[in-house]
Write a structure and sequence with these properties.
CATH topology: Thiol Ester Dehydrase, Chain A
Pfam family, one: 4HBT
Keywords: Hydrolase
Number of domains: 1
Number of strands: 5
Protein name: Acyl-CoA thioesterase
Shape: globular
GO molecular function: long-chain fatty acyl-CoA hydrolase activity
InterPro entries: Cytosol_ACT, HOTDOG_ACOT, HotDog_dom_sf, Thioestr_dom
CATH class: Alpha Beta
Oligomer: single chain
Number of helices: 2
CATH superfamily: Hotdog Thioesterase
Bound molecules: acetyl coenzyme *A
Distance between the termini: 44 Å
Length: 159
Amino acid sequence: MSGKERQLTLRFLAEPADVNFGGKVHGGAVMKWIDLAAYACAAGWSGKYCITAYAGGIRFVKPIHVGSIVEVAAKVIYTGRSSMHIALDVRAGDPKNTKRYLTTHCIVIMVAVDDQGQTTDVPEWVPETPEDIELRDSAIRLMDMRKKIGEEMEAHIQS
Ligand SMILES: CC(=O)SCCNC(=O)CCNC(=O)[C@H](O)C(C)(C)COP(=O)(O)OP(=O)(O)OC[C@H]1O[C@@H](n2cnc3c(N)ncnc32)[C@H](O)[C@@H]1OP(=O)(O)O
């Protein structure tokens, strides 16, 4: 059966090409990894091709050093008709031991599209544990807050 895999973790090493002049991983590289993990998670849940509609709440907590093992964990925390809200945590650490620290956290909203590029339905994710119910409720609260931010951002958009 395709789809319905709620979470996944990408694991790889931070390479020299990912690093800025200060010896730490570029924020843009971290954002690319987040987008890749969000896509893989959304495709795994929906069994469909997905596109990024929104990325927000990104917080760079700690830097990542070259040679670190990086783990990008992604999980579905809310589903709408065609959208999947994905919570992502990036952790890193020395590959010679199992200790990892949180480097980045954010929420990405992916939307499933059909072969014509039209948005299409995704399977509903129903939270069961108290922790998952809280994550779902938080995703709903964030949707309301985003509407207000969107209205405020209108002043900064020139078409
Ligand atoms: C592979 C890639 O990652 S592509 C690279 C980056 N991404 C892109 O280029 C995407 C560009 N954007 C788009 O194509 C369009 O804005 C789309 C397809 C994401 C949404 O198009 P819309 O006309 O708004 O579609 P529609 O009104 O059907 O909304 C679809 C869903 O997206 C959600 N959505 C749309 N825009 C946003 C947004 N800015 N923030 C959060 N959610 C959004 C809607 O709430 C809706 O969710 P639901 O179906 O679960 O209720």
